[in-house]
Amino acid sequence: MNTFEKFSIQMSKWFNWVALCGLTVMLGLVTVDIVGAKVFKLPVPGAMDFTSLLGLVVIAFAVAQTQLLGRHIAVNFLTIRLPKRLRIIIRSISTLLCILFFAVIIWRSFMNARDMHILGDASLTVKMPLWPFGYGLAIAFVPMLLILLIKFYYIVKGVDE
């Protein structure tokens, strides 16, 4: 499991860099659009389309690293009072549900991207094809699925993370 875990962590870090690059481009685009619109009366055509799609890139590619760092919201004020065995059962069930959830998201995102490609779906203003972002979304959630599988493994083994 060690090699698999290292690969998953490294993949999450790479994808987090993709998210960071997307955020940087988004910041630059919004800045140029605002300055262009307010100072020169010349906004960037399709800035809203690009910003929306970059938002998708930022969120999707940062999810796994956020999970690794333990930064997702967790509500455990009820479960901390339960016996340890019951907490482990609840954690394993919730982790299995998350694994199922992300597996379905990945599968449906690939199917949706394929449909967008076939139908030729494009953004409204600049007519940029949307299917690459659909495939990107599906690929972006793969490290999250891997991280959840590792988490489930540790829960079942009884090893603290």
Description:
With about 160 residues, the protein is mainly alpha-helical. It has one domain. The chain is built from five helices and no strands. The chain has helices spanning about 1-40, 45-70, 85-120, 130-140, 140-155. Helix 2 (about 45-70) packs parallel to helix 4. It starts with a helix and ends with a helix. The relative contact order is 0.15. The mean pLDDT is about 95.
Average pLDDT across residues?
A: 94
Q: Mind summarizing the main beta sheet?
A: none
The rounded Rg comes to 20 Å
- Inertia-based shape: elongated
Structural class: mainly alpha
What is the end-to-end distance? 13 Å
Which percent range describes the beta-strand content? under 5%
The SSE order reads: HHHHH
How many structural domains can be distinguished in the coordinates?
1
* Helicity, as a percent range: over 70%
In the predicted model, the low-confidence regions spanning at least 5 consecutive residues are none
Structure annotation, total helices: 5
Total number of beta strands:
0
Topology record:
Blueprint: H1 2-39, H2 47-68, H3 84-119, H4 131-140, H5 142-157
Helix pairs in contact: 1-2, 1-5, 2-4, 2-5, 3-4, 3-5
